[in-house]
Amino acid sequence: RALHDGRGDRRRPADRSRSAMSPTVRGAAALGAAALSALLLPPLVAVAVLLAVGAAIVVDALAARRPPEVVRRAPALLARGVPAALALTAQDEPRRVRLRQPRVPDLEVEPPEASGELQAAIVGRRRGRHELPAPAARVTGPLGLGCWYHRPGEAQKLEVYPDLPGAQRRA
């Protein structure tokens, strides 16, 4: 496989990262309801309601800005085709946290995400050295109007070897 050298298009900025803050479905619904209230309320009141809801979303998301401490337990060695345990845990976290382990082509993680704590099975599908990306976490604010996306932790190197014990059992 050929990978590009990372320089990309020189006309675009090098950092194309998106904002880590986002409204939740509840926040978008509240903003939509505030926008629909403009049909019934005087314009100044409708603008004030929109600003209040927008400010509530931003403040709620800012409450979720601090990244959670996530601990990952995964083996460093895998046998090809044999499931192994993978666990992601948000340590001492009172906020609502949704944890996700990003997938890579040659490693299968099932289930890929869960709330609070992720207990998954990881299966190496191809021999060789692989990198398991840093886990992803979505922290929702106390009102449920805004959330913040984090990448706590670091990538982990894994090695996938042939399933020799399984081959010996079959022989």
Instruction: List the total number of helices.
Output: 3
Class by helix and strand content?
Answer: alpha+beta
The radius of gyration over CA amounts to 22 Å
Spatial gap, N to C terminus: 34 Å
Total beta strand runs = 12
Strand content: 25-35%
Quaternary form: single chain
Secondary structure: helix percent: 10-25%
Largest sheet: 5 strands, antiparallel
The strand line-up of the biggest sheet is 1-11-10-5-7
Mean pLDDT: 86
Give the overall silhouette: elongated
Order of helices and strands: EHHEEEEEEEEEEEH
Structure in words:
The structure is a single chain. The chain is an alpha+beta fold and 171 residues long. Helices cover 23% and strands 34% of the residues. It has 3 helices and 12 strands. It has helices at 25-36, 43-63, 164-170, and strands spanning 21-23, 70-73, 77-79, 84-90, 96-100, 107-110, 113-115, 117-124, 128-132, 136-140, 146-150, 156-161. The strands form 3 sheets. Strands 1-11-10-5-7 form a 5-stranded antiparallel β-sheet. A hairpin with a 5-residue loop joins strand 10 (136-140) and strand 11. The longest helix is centred in the N-terminal third of the chain and has 21 residues, at 43-63. It is elongated and about 80 Å long.
